[in-house]
Every structure is written in structure tokens, then in C-alpha cells.
């Protein structure tokens, strides 16, 4: 009888352990691990020429969506210890600055200034000064305007308030600005950059976050666009990773982040996805926002900002849901095309759904990186 009882207890404990393994962020079904998926997406990027938002024409400069994939691939290479991949990504940049310099963007807009995050990441990984100089220049110019530039009155007002002259109060900015400035602090250990990003973030929180925790695309566009909110979620996660715990703006930013995460839990569907318009039941499941939200949740769980029991299952569900849209070529489908702001619900519902677009590839790499972090 005693042996049967011991056996029963052992089996029960084993079942509990197995059940926990099926719900955590470390154990994955075959073919779905962050190591496997991250490698496939990164290799797909290595093989892909510079792209122009899916258009057949070559790009005039490196697009922000390519920057986001490049950054994700670099961080994935670091966390996975893949030196070969890191070398390939470095080579891609070296070729760019030596042979394709015409594609290097001018830091005159948030979508172009974010390019500096790539050389700053390369500097952190290699300590080569050439990358440091390039990246720091981008971060600095986001606040320091060239003398030749005549700013509109509203932009001059932003500068007087200590904000970037590239401020436009589009939700997308809160990834573009916070990433480059956070990267500059990580590379320099100078908190002036993270102070800038934090101050900017608080202004955007006050301007765009609604009572339900979600964000309008812009003050005059009252729709909860999925990827727009994804930019904010991912930007908050990147910022909070580097923002000092005693920073005067941290509590406000953390409050906005947690408020958003709590609402996102309510809108994650039974499959693990979020929609193109988050709160619109007639909208379609969209992969780039799902990836961005999943990254923000994983980062929150790993850093202890979010309740593990509540959010870890949502993160796991989001990751596995994304992979049902991932094909044998290393591309993810159902990615909303690049989107400007417009006060028109149907405009968002009718956006093209792309496959392999870098807006969707990037969050897969961010998630894979986040899952590998301790």
C-alpha cells in the first residue's frame, strides 16, 4: 500500500512538472523553439537584399523596418551565442558603409534616425570605434538641429520643451525615438540619452493613451491600430530595460506600460492573436502587432514587471500563435503594410496583408531574443 502511495505521489508530481513545462517560456514543441525560429528568420534576412517596403523598386535608403529586423538579428545572435551570424550581420553593415553609402539615411526624421541603433549595437558587441561614431551622431542629431534647417513653429516649441525636433505625436515614434536613445545610453553610459527618451515617452503617454490603456495612432486619429500600439508596447519595454530604477519618470512610464498590458490581455483572442484594430471584432488577426505585444509581455515577465502566473501563459500563447503563420521559407504572413495615420476606420481594415514583410519579421526576432534572455 505504501509503495502504491509513493508511486501515485511520484506520478502526480511528474504530471505537475510536465504541465508546468507546457506552460512556461523554456520548453517548446519541436520546431518552435526561439533558437530554431530566430535562426531561420535571421538567415532569411541575411539572404534578402535591401528592400523598399515590399515595392519592386530599390530603396532610396535603408528603411526603418529593415533596421528593426537588423537590430533583432544582432540581439538574437548575441543571446544565442551565434558568432557566425553576428559576423554576417557585421559584414552587411561594413558593405553598406563602404560600397552602398548612398543608402545610409540622413537623420532628419524619426524613421531615418533609428538607423543609428544598428551601429550602436555593433559597437556594443565589437567595441570598434567606427560604429560608435556613426551611431552616436544619429542619437545626437535627433535633438541637435542643423543650422541650415528652418523649423516650423510647432517644432521649435517642442525643442523649447526639451523634446526632439523630430516629435510628431504619432504612436510609431515611441519605438523609433526610444530605441536609438536607449541604445546611445547603453553604448555611452551617459544618461542624457535615456533622460531624453523618458521625457519624450511621458509626453506621448499623456497625449495618446486612453482610459482603457490603449493608444490612438495620433491625437486626431481615434483608432487603436494594432501595430501602432505594438510600437508603443515594444518601445516601453526597450526603455524600461535601461531606465534607472530611481529615475523620476520611471513610475509614470511603468504605470502606462502596465495599464496597457492589462488591457491587451483582455483582447488576446482564443488562438493567441491580436487584431489589426485591437478592439474591433470585425478586424482581422495581424501578426506584427501580435509579435510586438508578445515581445513586450515576455520582457515584462522576465524582468519581474508583470505577474508571471498571469502573463507567462499569454506570452507563450502569442509566440505559438505567430508560428502558425510562419512558412517554410522563413516568412510570416498576415502583416499589415506600412501605414500612415488616417481618421478612417475602413482605411485600417482594408490595409494589404503581406507575407515576409520586415514589419512582421522583426518582432519574431525580438521575441526570440527576449525568450533567450535570463
From TrEMBL:
The keyword Hydrolase applies. The keyword Ligase does not apply. Residues 1-21 form the signal peptide. Keywords: Hydrolase, Signal. Pfam families: Glyco_hydro_88. One of its GO terms (molecular function) is hydrolase activity. This is Glycosyl hydrolase. It comes from Flavobacterium frigidimaris.
